[in-house]
Design a protein that fits this description.
Blueprint: E1 13-16, H1 18-22, H2 32-44, E2 49-50, E3 53-54, H3 67-73, H4 77-80, E4 88-89, H5 93-101, E5 107-112, H6 115-122, H7 126-142, E6 147-152, E7 156-157, E8 161-162, H8 165-177, E9 182-187, H9 194-206, E10 214-218, H10 225-234, E11 239-242, H11 262-271, H12 280-294, H13 301-306
Parallel strand pairs: 1-2, 1-11, 3-4, 4-5, 5-6, 6-9, 9-10, 10-11
Antiparallel strand pairs: 7-8
Helix pairs in contact: 2-3, 2-12, 8-9, 9-10
The structure holds 3-hydroxy-3-methylglutaryl-coenzyme A (HMG) and magnesium ion.
Length: about 300
């Protein structure tokens, strides 16, 4: 019997990142038809937002170099699931051109709160990266395409250590000022703990950023992703990023492990009486199937429990 604690939202929107954040970090290349089936099954399981792929340089992320082949295979999915959004990552105008040519309707740019990660992930300083995004967000807006802004390394950075909240708020506000409709705060290497989440969200609140524009993106390196999510929900956040089966990491951030598993998140939310629209059993079956394709069990505790320890 679900029991909702006071101060929690009635509904949470899950931003599923498995096909992008998950698969970008797989050592093996997943065939395009498997990716298309993965996304189709995630949509059928009730996920209303499924981040499909990235239009980045194919040499930087070879795992997602098939974006041009993948997107046409998803034609018809949004008709089958009204309201379904299939955002893609776009770093620059070249990426935007590629995405718009394929009729993409939602994009995301990805900034860094630290200089080292900006250099490693985007080959420029954090400030230069924002300038690279400026025409992207502007042109996307003119085409009626909303842009989500990711901000990485919001709590800690493997090269620079702890990241001051003021630095994170500064970059977050600048991303929103570029015209991003939503800001996703990434704990890219999964080092945050709940008090830091509350502190950072309070700092954004003091800076005048409405909590409705903020999403949280936790990686589960130290097993803190669910606790951090609950802390964020208590602060009023209602959009949570997660990855089916706990797939994920980031190829340009050593020590980044998988994202918060969508199944673990859904188990907690449903137990709290919070609606997600997700069919947990269908989702678990999908992650079990994907684990089989990847040749290794899902790290998600909920997947393991619900598949009776036979995930994969
Ligand atoms: P660069 O080498 O500085 O690019 O890379 P450039 O602008 O100098 O261009 C060099 C060449 O690349 C040119 O070709 C461009 O046309 C081409 P040439 O004229 O020499 O023949 N090029 C492209 N080709 C295809 N698609 C493109 C593109 N752009 C340029 N979009 C760049 C800069 C941003 C492209 C590169 O650094 C890159 O692709 N980085 C992507 C890294 C990435 O995807 N990282 C993972 C995602 S972030 C993440 O996972 C974190 C997140 O999950 C949140 C969290 O957890 O914190 C979101
Ligand atoms: Mg990530």
């Amino acid at each position: 019997m679900p029991v909702r604690a006071e101060g929690l939202p009635a509904r949470v929107r899950i931003h599923e990142v498995g096909p992008r954040d998950g698969l970008q970090n797989e050592s093996s290349l997943v065939p395009v038809e498997v990716k298309a089936e993965f996304i189709t099954r995630l949509a059928a399981a009730g996920l209303g937002t499924v981040e499909a792929t990235s239009f980045v340089h194919p040499k930087w992320v070879p795992q997602l170099a098939d974006a041009e082949q993948l997107m046409p295979r998803l034609d018809g999915l949004t008709e089958a699931h009204p309201g379904l959004r299939l955002p893609v990552l776009v770093p620059n105008e070249r990426g935007l051109d590629r995405a718009l040519e394929l009729g993409v309707t939602d994009i995301a740019v990805f900034a860094s709160a630290t200089e080292t990660f900006a250099r490693r992930n985007l080959n420029r300083s954090a400030g230069e990266a924002l300038e690279m995004f400026r025409p992207v967000v502007q042109r996307a807006g003119q085409a009626g395409v909303p842009t989500r802004g990711y901000l990485s390394m919001c709590f800690g950075d493997p090269w620079e250590g702890p990241v001051p909240a003021a630095q994170v708020v500064d970059f977050g506000v600048r991303l929103l000022e570029l015209g991003c409709t939503e800001l996703s705060l990434g704990d890219t290497i999964g080092v945050a703990t709940a008090g830091q989440v509350t502190e950072l969200l309070a700092a954004f609140d003091r800076a005048g950023v409405p909590v409705g524009r903020i999403a949280v993106h936790f990686h589960d390196t130290y097993g803190q992703a669910l606790a951090n999510t609950l802390a964020a929900l208590r602060c009023g956040v209602t959009t949570v990023d997660a990855s089916a089966g706990g797939l994920g990491g980031c190829p340009y951030a050593k020590s980044a492990t998988g994202n918060l598993a969508t199944e673990d998140l859904v188990w907690m939310l449903h137990g709290l009486g919070i609606e997600t629209g997700v069919d947990l059993r269908a989702l678990v079956a999908t992650s079990g199937w994907m684990a089989g394709r990847l040749g290794r069990p899902s790290p998600s505790r909920a997947v393991q429990a619900l598949l009776g320890g036979t995930a994969g």
